[in-house]
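Researcher: Here's the sequence for the chain we discussed earlier.
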Amino acid sequence: MTRYLSLFFSALTLSLLLSFTSQAWAQDQLTEPSETTEIAEAEFLPELDPSALPEPIQHLKNKGLDIVRTFPVGASLTGWVVNYEGSDMVVYTTNDGEFLINGVLLDAQGNDLTENHQKNWIPRPSWDDLATSHFITEASLAVDQEAPEKNLTRSTLYMFYDANCPFCHLAWIALQPYREAGLEVRWIPVAYLKPDSRDKAAALLSTPKSEQAALLKASMQAFGTNTSEFSKPPSTANKDQLQTNMNLMQSLGLNGTPGWVWLNEEGEMQTHSGMLRLPKLPSVTGLPAQKHTEPTLMRFR
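Model: Thanks. This is the structure I predict for it:
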């Protein structure tokens, strides 16, 4: 995915709206929860004389963006949390106050510092907040032996996905055996990869709840083919739903799709951006390892 550096406000305004472009597709490392997720009140940006703000930050403030807080980033940069139309994001200024950087910051080893900054400095939603998102449920297929007419849900996983994301498609394939073992997957659509991503998401969100899982399955099975039959112009309500989902994804510090959110054995919420290696799925789902024979998944073994 394309990363970008914006030194002009006009470009920044556009990128604020499209802030999920990402290279996180193929990350292998799980993201452990930060011990500094909760920010103390004293760390919020106090009222400052506007003249004390770097000129690019003051320019954002004049354009209507809220400056939430600031934090140090090494010897050369300062980090800022800014709020645009209810959505928080991280940007950086050089310490000489001349430039503003909007994008992903990597250290000398290639580690994504921005994702950690988002998790440390942007207040994160709770697990319960995820239930307020607009998602499509793929129910567990495990049978409850005590009540054979019912399915047994042993664990729940939230997945942020874009309908045009090839790695989301692979994640869907990889998770199907875990549904047989008791996993419920709640797919949270976002739309940022291609112009028709929003139309594909709107088609799912507009479908009656009882039919959404079947439509999701059909669209995943048809991935890479002409899927115009799975598209629908979004209504105003659909646009609002997708924006809510995107804001939630950003608040979780997820920089790309698929975006995984689950609870570990201690009940702590964890996240990961990008396709996971298959051996990591048991720890994410809390279920025994399942067999995969699909050739498309071989590189993730």
